[in-house]
Amino acid sequence: MLRRFSRFFPKTLMTLNDLPSGALVFIDANIFVYHFSGISAECRTLLKRVERKELRAATGAHIVLEVLHRLMTIEAISKGLITPGQPAKKLKQNPDVIKQLSDYAKCVNEIRSLDVRVYPVTTRQIRKSEGIRSSCGIMTNDSVTATMMSSYGITNVASLDSDLRRAQGIILYQPTDVP
């Protein structure tokens, strides 16, 4: 049974440091979140490599929105404005708290300054992603990511999300310093 799935899961973990110079890599939301929140030195190093033009990087508009959302909740918790546990629900119930948050939004300018190309999500890609969800059993944003990567000829993805391995033609590079 395991042999049948071996094409989906490489035997060795490919780390962010394994990305060869000059490679084009799609950057997933968790890499940005771990970088901006200071959780991962490896994610910070990866984005420094992009900044120095050692790597070419792309992401999707849906990823930037996910990063904004996650960093908004992290900021609200870290400032003590809400408690952990269902942060989005707590923020929806407290619009005045949202008005006090601004640090999270600075990441969009930083992503742009890193020279990460942000691709729009098209209706065609959304439709095509349905087939990837059906065949690979991965979540919506991951299936859109896989579809976008295929559309733009990108095979490398930097992400902690091992589900992306199930999409055909994707080489996953993961941080190893994230709990």
What descriptive keywords fit this protein?
single chain; 179 residues; Rossmann fold; 5-stranded parallel beta sheet; globular; disordered N terminus
Largest sheet: 5 strands, parallel
The helix content, as a percent range, equals 40-55%
> What's the total number of strands?
5
- Number of helical regions: 9
Note the beta-strand portion. 5-15%
Helix-strand sequence = HEHHEHHHHEHHEE
Distance between the termini: 29 Å
Examine the secondary-structure arrangement and name the CATH architecture of the domain at 24-119 and 153-173.
Answer: 3-Layer(aba) Sandwich
What is the subunit organization of this protein?
Answer: single chain
Catalogue the unreliable spans: 1-11
Q: Report the structural category.
A: alpha/beta
- State the shape: globular
Radius of gyration: 17 Å
Strand order of the largest sheet: 3-2-1-4-5
Mean model confidence by pLDDT = 92
Tell me what you see in this structure:
- By secondary structure, the protein is of the alpha/beta class.
- It has a domain at 24-119 and 153-173: Rossmann fold (3-Layer(aba) Sandwich), CATH 3.40.50.
- Helices cover 49% and strands 11% of the residues.
- It contains nine helices and five strands; from the N terminus they run H-E-H-H-E-H-H-H-H-E-H-H-E-E.
- A five-stranded parallel beta sheet has the order 3-2-1-4-5.
- The longest helix is centred in the middle third of the chain and has 18 residues, at 61-78.
- Residues 1-11 have low confidence and may be disordered.
